[in-house]
Amino acid sequence: MNWPLLVDIASVFVGLSVVSIGGANAVLPDIRRQVVDAHGWMDNGTFANLFAISNAAPGPNVIMVSLIGWHLAGLSGLIVATLAILVPSSLIAFWVGRMVERWSDNHWVSVAKQGLVPIAVGLILASGVTMMKAADHNALLVAISLSAAAFMAFSGRNPLWGLAVGTIVNILAVQLGLVA
Amino acid sequence: MKQIETYEGRTVSVAELFLGFVKVGLLGFGGVAPWARYIVVEERKWLTEREFAEVLGVGQILPGPNTMNAAVMIGDRFQGRLGAFVCIAGQMAMPLVIMVTLASLYAEFSANAHVNAALIGAAAGAAGLVFGTGIKMVQKLRPKGMALIFGVLAFAAAAIFGISVVYVVGVLAPLSIAAAAWERRS
Question: Is A62's Cβ below 8 Å from some Cβ in B?
Fold first, then answer.
């Protein structure tokens, strides 16, 4: 086992974990800078491939970091990278969550929670728009996104239907030569 | 100001938490927030819309993925440390297995036209689900006054002006809290 490499992986991702406000996507440029420029662990092409693979899998975006660990050092790399990116931020969330719970009757805690709700909702809407800008290269994809959004917002049914229909429609459209 | 509805005394077992978040991870294609909200609020009714939005809001200003932070707080709320752990583990387990499998097949699947068409269609659908989740939260929470203003500002800053989440949160969160305090004065 390559201990020095594992220690390097751990220190890079622990450092990113404690500053990663906004999650893995927000620190993606920093992740790239660390693994490509600073440490020379891979080139930009490999980094882009790992990003594409992690996007093809379901789950939180942070699994991209696990895949970098896997690419560098196999299973031990995956475990070290995953723990390094998740444990520090999760411990902070755990501790802050307890504080919020303990002081839930406090006027200022309740004011703070009230003030944070619109920020969270505004950022969810923004992340939907950002994802649509990245994903929707033609009119059909825009229509798929908007239909899925309307389905999610107004139907109250399982969102999987929105996802499945979009996927099937695009496969058919490509098959029939309707879109590139 | 009292909330309209809460699930006081709601209990959720460790196994329920684990399985719920396994589902969030497994279905959370392109973003887990829509699934976390759907399963926690609509399907299993563990939290109300407002409670979920508050947990997500606190999770948003802390480092780490906001949904992962929310999972930690939701798990802790119902089952303490073990609950927090199983919510993270549940959310990560299946995606990691699937991703490592995909990585070994990447050379083949990246050249397959059907697979590419499926991934592109699914990404468009997933983006829509995220946006639709935001719309649903707006419908349910019906923000007024300062909440509406700061929601619009956060949205515009990130989506229209492309400002990094760190700055959006760093600048707007304190102002939004101050505005909430000002609205509640007297």
Answer: yes
